[in-house]
Amino acid sequence: MRTWGKRLLLLLIAGLLIAVAGFFYWALNPLPAMPEAEAALQSDTNVHVETTPWFTFIPQTSQPRLGFILYPGGHVDPRAYAPPARRLAEEGWLVVIPPMPLNLAFFAPNKAEEIIAAHPEIEVWVIGGHSLGGAMAVRFARTHPQQVAGLVLWASYPAESDAIADWTDFPVLSIYGTEDGGREGIEASAQLLPPETEWVVIEGGNHAQFGWYGPQPGDGVARISREEQQAIILEATARFLHAVAAQHGVETAP
């Protein structure tokens, strides 16, 4: 009996080690960024790009006073969000995408603290994220309400424990596509967000086209191109950031 007990224990340990190794292999091999994302990481006369310790996009034609922190989606290469980050920086805002431990924002929801501390020149911060990144952005906003002035959710929603439905005078933008595999959860989350939340529904858009990476398991099939979906995302997000900047008197200064 003791021999069988030892064998069973060894089998359990081996199974656990295999499971842990499998998780780390999965986590450390995220959905890769497309070539367009790599191109967006190149600096030019309009935007200077820094790739360490975060992906930071700094406008070169103006002095940014508002910063936008974008948490990447779970199991997605953070570089996949470089194209929209660059376009927003061209509008005059500092934009920062922080890589996450094991490519999962769940393990570092307070990463924004480091970014804010590193940029004392920024007067107003807005935080946002895609998918899991958005959920963790809500968590940061809920636990650090004095540090952020707005929230942007790309195909995302908060956990019930992070509900901010009773918040007033706190702008929130939620964007999602009709073909998103998680659409039901996003729509049901309305009760967890402030009543004044601005909703933008992208007809024909899906989950993966919020970034520049390939198909995602469990997602729907988009009925519009990535370029079309990105244009809608950027227009809505830029309009929201302009509104927050105007509200706080920090419109981009030349």
Automatic annotation (TrEMBL):
Which Pfam families does the protein's record reference? Abhydrolase_5
What Gene3D superfamilies would the database entry show? alpha/beta hydrolase
Q: Where is the signal peptide?
A: none
**A GO term for molecular function:** hydrolase activity
Q: Which residue intervals define the domain Alpha/beta hydrolase fold-5 in the entry?
A: 68-230
Q: What is this protein called?
A: Alpha/beta hydrolase fold-5 domain-containing protein
In its UniProt entry, the species of origin is given as Ardenticatena maritima
